[in-house]
Specification:
This protein is mainly beta. It has one domain. The protein has 2 helices and 6 strands.
Length: about 90
Amino acid sequence: MMQTYSSAVLAPNEAPDGFIAVLKSDVATESLGNICRACDWRSECDGFAYRCMSYTVISAKDGRELKRQDGCSVVFKRRPKDDLTGASR
């Protein structure tokens, strides 16, 4: 099931296991600075496995297109512990 935030539909399969995608606009503040600071996946991010940007880029590694299927610009937040119990992923 897809989650809807601020009228955007976010694809749950586009987040790493144990994380959910949240619109960047829902977490951005002026004092935050770099939006990546709001992302719980940041320490594991390699820019290839899970896209957070809304636009398509071409991988310098293998030439494939990297893009979010939902077209949204997101950060990844850890799922609450109780959300993981009985999860199918």
